[in-house]
Amino acid sequence: MNIQAEKLNVLQQIINSNDVNLIKDIKSLINSRDMDWFDGLSKGQQNDVTEGLNQLDNGNFFSHEEAKKRFGYK
User: Fold this and answer.
1) Domain range for residue 43?
2) Which pLDDT tens digit goes with each residue over 20-73?
């Protein structure tokens, strides 16, 4: 695949299009790829992830096997 030719082909299709929804979809796709998944979380979710990472860094964790035992899974 010639990436430069593909890019030019896509750009030409965009330039020739009058489909507002297509342009919005392309813009949304580009913006979503730029966004870090963490930024898409709520503040509470971000705090939970950060807390979990801090717990891991401090050695405060247990194995999957231990979790299964603690919560009664076999």
Assistant:
1) 39-74
2) 999 999 998 888 777 788 888 999 999 999 999 999 999 999 899 998 998 888
Asked if 47 and 20 sit in the same domain, the reply is no
What pLDDT, on the 0 to 100 scale, is given for residue 57? 94
Cβ burial of 26 (10 Å; 0-12, 13-18, 19+) is middle
Amino acid at 24: K
**Residue showing tokens 């750009």:** 11
Based on the fold, state whether residues 52 and 66 are members of the same structural domain.
yes
pTM to 2 decimals? 0.48
Count Cα neighbours of 4 within 13 Å in the Cβ-side half-sphere: 0
Instruction: For residues 50 and 5, give the distance between their C-alpha atoms in angstroms, rounded to a whole number.
Output: 43
Residue at 3: amino acid letter: I
